[in-house]
TrEMBL record, chain A:
Belongs to the bacterial solute-binding protein 1 family. It comes from uncultured spirochete. Its main location: periplasm. Pfam families: SBP_bac_1. Keywords: Signal. Gene3D superfamilies: Periplasmic binding protein-like II. SUPFAM superfamilies: Periplasmic binding protein-like II. GO terms for cellular component: periplasmic space. It comes from the Bacteria. Residues 1-23 form the signal peptide. This is Putative ABC transporter substrate-binding protein. It is found in: Periplasm. The lineage of its organism: Bacteria, Pseudomonadati, Spirochaetota, Spirochaetia, Spirochaetales.
Automatic annotation (TrEMBL), chain B:
The keyword Cytoplasm does not apply. This is Putative ABC transporter permease protein AmyC. PANTHER family: ABC TRANSPORTER PERMEASE PROTEIN MG189-RELATED, ABC TRANSPORTER PERMEASE PROTEIN MG189-RELATED-RELATED. Residues 85-277 form the ABC transmembrane type-1 domain. The chain crosses the membrane at residues 21-50, 85-108, 120-141, 153-172, 201-222, 259-277. InterPro entries: MetI-like, MetI-like_sf.
């Protein structure tokens, strides 16, 4: 009796030991993302990425945690601030937020490993900070005009080819009782895409100069763009209640044909091409330039990472697995699952014609400007979006708003150098 | 008697038993209307959850064309009640067990044994109620890491209790304060010590507060998002609310029907619990009348 | 102020001393658990908040001591003042609207306990069951333009003025829209709390009042309100401190907009800390919230204290 017990005990110990050894062999990657990897079309890429990688590399165990929109950002910020409990890989749009983490020494420099991956320049640039590459951006979003083709055709209208043409088109739409633009300014950031375009069309690389503190934010291009924006708002091109509508409401207006145009990022392609989401025919066009008097051209495009992943310093001990994962994230195999976003990997074909249109716009880009609210230092990003919202307030003085934003930039980034 | 009043002071609507029936009817109607207003928004998700996205986009307030369950199926898969529920319950009960005994004891002492020292200690505890949660997240997280408590369920409900104790101490203090002084004196004449007086006489009298506290602490723990988000990282320890939130946040409100389905699934357990237990809850809460 | 529990029997000095020690031991062990929780989990974060409010840091970078710089900056911060203003008007209106409404419901429910009102006792607490994200979502559905509940109602009735109101987008209305939702969501707790306190009032008082022919209103005013003096003051403290910390609903319904129309101190704090990475300034706002809460609590407790002692 006793002997058998001792045997059993020994057996148990051996078993435990061997599982311990086995699990030591198995590398576990913790990945924090935004979307849950379910079968919904919106999450097709994440679904394919996680399941595909797990099937291909069974020796690497993936622990993917979906945290949702403010959740991912908040949790990442707190773990980065304390430097403990970091995931191996986290989802990010790159830019200054990722840069802040890199400056704090929380990220893992993978320049040598990642620089060889075929990828569009803009997407690589977004995941690079101070010359070092920290991650990959398999999908890139550009801003443009989503146009309800049916409405335009029924009213014999043409998509504006110059900014000057907008007034005529919008007035015609308004006369028909259709809201020209959907925006969703209750959420503050949706106004940014159009403002960035208008500023660029007036002043070319004004935003880059202002960020580098060569010109102030209340200089000519910014003021003119804001004034034009405000005149459109006053004419009712954004409907009667732009401030009460959220971004989701704006999508509904487009989806039901109540609004004719939506100037926003190409991430909406998947939904606007989805027959469950909308019964309208929607197209994607580049934002035009001024016929005369402007500096920026149609080939200056606004946009940034749509889905990106970066590695943290704790990933250093499992470098192989991390690189494997990031490479798989950039593989055609995983990327082809995505129905709507523009892939940064050459050779991955767009699935819908809407995405193809957006990808074509992206292909014409000579310069790409990143979202200001992701590219400027975080200290001024939420004031920037706040300021945009003031354009919509009745009786707002846009020049004053820009001046106070400039004052804030002087305080947080520095004064304009002469 | 001291409550005898002049009729004219009743401000027109006034007193007298003749109108008694009338005002009861009016007030009952007002209460029913208020109750309907209270309940109506709770029914709204039901109106949305059975619709397709397009049906919702065109006719948000219409009766659903058909009872479609696929939104519920999607939400059910993501919420994974089987795993989240147990964690949530542990957090809820842990939070109740830590918050309420601490608060009831402290509240009792602060109400019945007042001195300069206890008064200072009362404020020392009450200041915990003044701290905005967003502010303490970083230090709290740092501390939990150094205590190796992060990513555990007790690491979640212990600080939750710390956040709840000041509030409930305040409530218990007010309850014990309003109990007639003679009760404690009578007990002490009978030779009961401090401990005995508390457990035999005072604690049962505080039952309404305790029912209220159990209910509220339970709901607070059940619905908590921010603390759980920051303090838990291991998916196996995720609470239900955390799963629901990540499901909701990865669709956003633009996918309303699915959102509504998830809302219903996540609120259902508490709703059922409340509906089943509300008789007992109300009874327990309204048992305050002192029997002499 | 100092009240010592009556030791009625005139026992010998020795016995008295022993009793005294028992008393201290009892007090000590009663307060210990609560204090322990606070010391372990909250004192360090509170201390950190105070310390960080004197530094400049992104939360990631090195902390640089800047003295009272963060506080001085707050004085020039429009958003902060807007938040301060909203927080105070929120507190004021909660006390003026939510508390009387809750008292009315609680009192009527207990006074007229009949076939129709009894089932309602459970109803008013129901919105409390929902997490605030969902409350905010429901709020958006009630007040949204185009398809919101009120606007749709206006369309059905053909009332153009109602159908064209932009509750969340109009800076003058947004605050009230959120306040209405908060009243709906939070009053349930006040109602059941007050109900339980009203039930504590001895039945004889009501019977005596009824025998005297006192109306419901005079009974409420003469007997119930004075008895609820202290509980109502506690609720006033809750309203004030709750307003100072207010974050969830306005953040999710309007993100503080339009402009600064619904900004609260809680939102400013979150924004400075988490979005703008200005951790020192966020901590300074945290300290302001903390100090104001303390001041107002002490004020509300000391106002009318004498009456309270008599109870």
């Amino acid at each position: 009796m006793k002997k058998s017990r001792i045997f059993a005990l020994c057996f148990l110990i051996v078993c435990l030991f061997s599982t311990a050894v086995l699990s030591a062999d198995e590398v576990k990657l913790t990945i924090w993302g935004r979307d849950i990897p379910d079968d919904s079309a919106d999450h097709a890429y994440v679904h394919a990425l996680i399941n595909g990688f797990q099937a291909k590399y069974p020796d690497v165990k993936i622990d993917y945690i979906a945290l949702g929109d403010p959740g991912l950002a908040d949790k990442t910020k707190i773990t980065m601030a304390t430097g403990s409990g970091l995931p191996d890989i986290f989802q990010t749009w790159g830019g200054s937020v990722m840069g802040g983490y890199a400056d704090a020494g929380m990220l893992f420099d993978l320049t040598n490993e990642l620089k060889g991956i075929p990828c569009s320049d803009a997407a690589r640039q977004a995941m690079t900070w101070k010359g070092k590459i920290y991650g990959v951006a398999p999908f890139f979003a550009v801003a443009g005009i989503f146009v309800n083709e049916g409405i335009f055709k029924a009213n014999n209208l043409k998509v504006p080819a110059t900014i000057e043409e907008f007034d005529k088109v919008c007035d015609a739409l308004k006369a028909k009782g259709i809201q020209p633009f959907a925006c969703g300014e209750k959420d503050k950031w949706p106004a940014l895409a159009l403002y960035m375009y208008l500023t660029n069309r007036y002043g070319g690389d004004a935003s880059a100069k202002a960020a580098a503190r060569q010109i102030p934010y209340d200089s000519d291009a910014f003021v003119k763009a804001a004034q034009l924006y405000q005149s459109w708002i006053k004419k009712g091109y954004f409907g009667a209640t732009p401030l009460g509508e959220g971004y989701g409401d704006a999508q509904q207006l487009m989806a039901t044909g109540k609004a004719a145009m939506h100037i926003t990022g190409s991430w909406m392609c998947a939904q606007y091409a989805n027959s469950e989401f909308t019964d309208q025919t929607i197209g994607f066009y580049a934002f035009p330039a001024f016929k005369s008097g402007g500096v920026g051209t149609v080939n200056d495009i606004m946009g940034q990472t749509d889905i990106g992943f970066a590695a943290t310093k704790v990933a250093a001990s499992k470098k192989d697995a991390v690189v494997k994962f990031l490479k798989y994230a950039m593989s055609t195999e995983a990327c082809e699952a995505e129905p709507g976003r523009i892939c940064s990997v050459p050779g991955v074909k767009a699935k819908s014609s809407l995405t193809a249109q957006a990808a074509a716009v992206f292909a014409t880009a000579k310069t790409v400007t990143f979202w200001w609210d992701q590219d400027l230092p975080p200290s001024v990003t939420s004031p920037l979006n706040d300021m945009l919202q003031t354009f919509f307030l009745p009786g707002a003085d846009v020049k004053k708003s820009l001046s106070s934003f400039e004052a804030l930039c002087v305080e947080n980034i520095g004064p304009v150098k002469k | 008697m001291r409550m005898r009043r002049e009729q004219s002071a009743g401000r027109g609507r006034s007193s007298s038993r003749v109108h008694y029936g009338m005002s009861e009817i009016i007030i009952t109607i007002v209460l029913v209307v208020l109750a309907v207003i209270t309940i109506f928004p709770l029914v709204v998700p039901l109106l949305f959850a059975f619709k397709t996205q397009l049906e919702f986009a065109y006719h948000p307030w219409a009766i659903p064309e058909a009872l479609r369950w696929n939104n519920f199926a999607e939400a059910w898969k993501a919420v994974r009640i089987d795993q989240g529920l147990l964690n949530t319950l542990i957090v809820c009960f842990g939070s109740i067990l830590c918050t309420i005994p601490s608060a009831v004891l402290a509240g009792y002492v602060f109400a019945r044994y007042r001195s300069r020292v206890t008064e200072i200690l009362f404020y020392a505890i009450l200041i915990g109620y003044f701290v905005p949660v967003q502010m303490v997240l970083v230090p709290l997280y740092r501390m939990e890491v150094s205590l190796k408590m992060n990513d555990t369920l007790y690491g979640l409900f212990l600080p939750m209790a710390a956040f709840g104790i000041p509030f409930w101490t305040l409530i218990y203090r007010s309850f014990f304060k309003s109990l007639p002084r003679e009760l404690a004196e009578a007990a002490s004449i009978d030779g009961a010590g401090h401990t005995k007086t508390f457990f035999r006489v005072m604690l049962p009298l505080a039952q309404p507060a305790t029912v209220l506290a159990v209910l509220q602490v339970f709901m607070g723990a059940w619905n908590d998002y921010l603390l759980s988000l920051i303090l838990l990282s291991d998916q196996n320890k995720f609470t239900m609310q955390l799963r629901v939130a990540s499901f909701l946040n990865s669709y956003g409100t633009d996918r309303m029907p699915r959102y509504a389905a998830a809302v219903i699934i996540s609120a259902l357990p508490t709703l059922i619990l409340y509906l089943v237990g509300h008789r007992w809850i109300i009874k327990g809460m309204l048992s305050g009348a002192i029997k002499e | 102020m100092e009240i010592v529990e009556g030791e009625t029997s005139c026992a010998g000095k020795k016995k008295h001393k022993k009793k005294d020690r028992n008393r201290s031991v009892f007090i000590f062990f009663c307060i210990l658990p609560a204090i322990l929780f606070l010391v372990i989990f909250l004192y360090y974060p509170i201390e950190e908040t105070f310390r960080l409010s004197l530094t400049k840091t992104t939360g990631l970078s090195k902390e640089v001591f800047v003295g009272t710089d963060n506080y001085q900056r707050l004085f020039h911060d429009e958003e902060f003042f807007a938040g301060l203003k909203h927080v105070f008007s929120w507190a004021f209106w909660s006390i003026v609207i939510q508390l009387p409404l809750s008292f009315f419901i609680a009192f009527s429910l207990t006074y007229y306990s009949n076939r129709f009102t009894r089932p309602l006792q459970a109803v008013f607490f129901l919105p409390n069951v929902l997490p605030s994200a969902i409350t905010a979502m429901l709020g958006k559905f009630v007040f949204a333009p185009n398809y919101g509940l009120i606007v749709s109602l206006g369309k059905v009735l053909g009332w153009k003025w109602l159908a064209s109101i932009d509750f969340l987008g109009n800076p003058n209305l947004a605050f009230w829209a959120i306040f209405a939702i908060a009243t709906w969501a939070y009053s349930g707790f006040y109602v059941i709390y007050l109900m339980s306190r009203i039930e504590q009032i001895p039945r004889e008082l009501r019977e005596a009042a009824e025998l005297d022919g006192a109306s419901m209103w005079s009974y409420a005013r003469r007997i119930v309100l004075p008895e609820l003096n202290y509980p109502l003051r506690i609720l006033a403290v809750l309203c004030t401190v709750g307003s100072l910390k207010l974050f969830d609903l306005p953040n999710m319904m309007t993100t503080g907009g339009p402009g600064n129309a619904t900004v609260t101190l809680g939102i400013t704090l979150y924004r400075h800390g988490f979005i703008n990475w200005n951790y020192g300034k966020a901590a300074a706002i945290g300290v302001v919230i903390f100090v104001l809460s303390l001041v107002f609590t002490i004020l509300q407790f000391s106002l009318g204290r004498k009456k309270d002692e008599a109870i």
